[in-house]
Amino acid sequence: TAMGESSMDPTISSPDSTAQQDSLFSMMDVFLISLITGLLTYWFFFRKKKEDVPDLPKMQSVAAPVRDSSFIEKMKKTGRNIVVFYGSQTGTAEEFANRLSKDAHRYGLRGMAADPEEYDLSDLSRLSEIDKSLAVFCMATYGEGDPTDNAQDFYDWLQEADADLSGLRFAVFGLGNKTYEHFNAMGKYVDKRLEELGAQRIFELGLGDDDGNLEEDFITWREQFWPAVCEHFGVEATGEESSIRQYELVVHTDVNMNKVYTGEMGRLKSYENQKPPFDAKNPFLAQVTENRKLNEGGERHLMHLELDISNSKIRYESGDHVAVYPANDSSLVNQIGEILGTDLDTVMSLNNLDEESNKKHPFPCPTSYRTALTYYLDITNPPRTNVLYELAQYATDAGEQERLRRMASSAAEGKALYLSWVVEARRNILAILQDMPSLHPPIDHLCELLPRLQARYYSIASSSKVHPNSIHICAVTVEYETKTGRLNKGVATNWLKGKVPQPQQDGSSSLVPMYVRKSQFRLPFKPSTPVIMIGPGTGIAPFIGFIQERAWLKQQGKEVGETVLYYGCRHEREDYLYREELARFQKEGVLTQLNVAFSRDQAEKVYVQHLLKKNKENVWKLVNEGMAHIYVCGDARNMARDVQNTFYEIVSEFGSMSQPQAVDYVKKLMTKGRYSLDVWS
């Protein structure tokens, strides 16, 4: 029967077999549908992953900044043809950009300064839609050849971009410092990359050196830049530089004091009503819980401060920087007020005359002159030449007026006078007002001209593993006599020195506005990797954090590699910082080597590089066999360079290499993140 059934005509089926087939089909259907659904689901997710991963950075870079509008549309709307972008960390590049955009009107052109963070820079390809258009870039280099925070997006875009910028005309002025390894890296990169993307350079790259005379470098570049612009566009200067106010003064006689800024950096009342996340525009008010003098003798004051960051949600890693917003000395502020015969408690606003500008005020307004001069304006650095030029009109004595104009001119004699009388004599605005008795500018114009007071960065001297709710600072107060016999004091360090811990919570005299800035200065990923730390003076700061962290790792049962410190100070009995802590770490076996150079305790000077040479075999063994990471912190001008040269010598001798090969070897260590610098000049 089985054979008969199987050979039956398939078109004729018994009710039984039909039911069987139906159930078979339904099972088959379910199976197939499930299989297809499963495959589709798998394919969908698999495909999604595959496509999304490479797209992520692009998606972020498009969506991240909240763009105001296209700078092209803005330029068209306001009749501008020159845009000056600035990459600025301390405000100088922004200042230069403002000066260049103001210059433009002398040539029948109209300029605007722009923060690249506020615009979509891919619009550069459209700049040629505007007649006689030009993009200028004032780019500062920060840290170890990095872009400034506000130029990071622009830098990322340049690296990824495959845009055609063939219609774009550009020029770049870089702001750097020759004592650093990567001098003007950002300016050089922008200049080279724009050309690679097809843009036309209309004037050579300017390289400003802050170790020399940055102001003079800028003026020299600028006085050749404008004639090149004129030649390119066939325009001529329309006349002399004229003083054009950028802001107008509004005095508030009847104002609600709750609407007045009293030192906040961003949001009004942000110091009374603190809300995370905390950053440059929204600093956290940290209580100083400890402020002790570290040195036992000598003229200097070296100090250790501890800032309480409980309940702030602030996270930090060893090697990061803490930024603090200081306040100017009240006696300097009062003296400026007296000379200018002003009631410093007048509440006012400075409003931008260009209503289209993103920058409505030069600093938070409304506020009082006292608040502006205390918290918002830099009154201690020697003013730049544009400030002198604008102030000259207010000198009633013809000789003083001429002298101010001459110092602001591009003539060699004027530059020399500015260098000696202002820069080398370290004359700040108060000293200039005192030494030119006929000079009485309106205080509002002076406030418009002075640069913003900047945050100061310190290497954090603690580990968050050991001190999660506290950030430690190690600093030396700056105080020196100038050529004019005046005593100049560092703004931040003297302000910090006066921060005394308060037993009550309401002690505002012990509050410090601060935020954390991430750094690349990091301990090796594997605790077993040896580290060689070189940090004389306050350069020891991040290494206290590093050693604390390695001690903590050891307590956690981790295998911790050799931890070697090269430290230096002037005298063993005077300024040996963290002596007890270092001795304890050595006794506990965390600090495997402690090498200390006391530079002035004997006839010949002994520095950290001399101790490195003395231990050269051990140093080479750690670097070559142990794959040690090297860290250098402190003075960039001499120490960091001397230490690097010492490494060249050690590598050359023990690696049997020529000098160029040894240099290349050390540079490769830097590229691999095995030779890190945290230096300042």
Care to describe what's here?
It is a single chain. Helix content is 38%, strand content 18%. It is of the alpha/beta class and 681 residues long. The protein is globular. It has four domains: 71-233, 3-Layer(aba) Sandwich (Rossmann fold), CATH 3.40.50.360; 273-325 and 455-519, Beta Barrel (Elongation Factor Tu (Ef-tu), domain 3); 327-453, NADPH-cytochrome p450 Reductase, Chain A, domain 3 (Up-down Bundle), CATH 1.20.990.10; 531-679, 3-Layer(aba) Sandwich (Rossmann fold), CATH 3.40.50. The strands form five sheets. Strands 1, 2, 3, 4, 5, 6 and 7 form a seven-stranded mixed beta sheet that branches. It holds the Pfam family Flavodoxin_1. Residues 82-226 form the Flavodoxin-like domain. Its EC number is 1.6.2.4. Residues 281-524 form the FAD-binding FR-type domain. Its cofactor is FMN; FAD.
Kindly name the structural category: alpha/beta
Whole-number mean pLDDT: 90
Major sheet characteristics: 7 strands, mixed
Could you tell me the CATH topology label of the largest domain: Rossmann fold
CATH superfamily membership of the largest domain = Flavodoxin domain
Approximate helicity band: 25-40%
What does the overall shape look like?
globular
Total beta strands = 23
| Helical stretch tally | 21
Strand content: 15-25%
N-to-C CA distance: 103 Å
Rg of Cα set: 32 Å
Taken together, the total number of domains comes to 4
Q: Which parts are unreliable, with pLDDT below 50 for 5 consecutive residues or more?
A: 1-25, 43-67
The first-level CATH class of the largest domain is given as: Alpha Beta
CATH architecture grouping of the largest domain: 3-Layer(aba) Sandwich
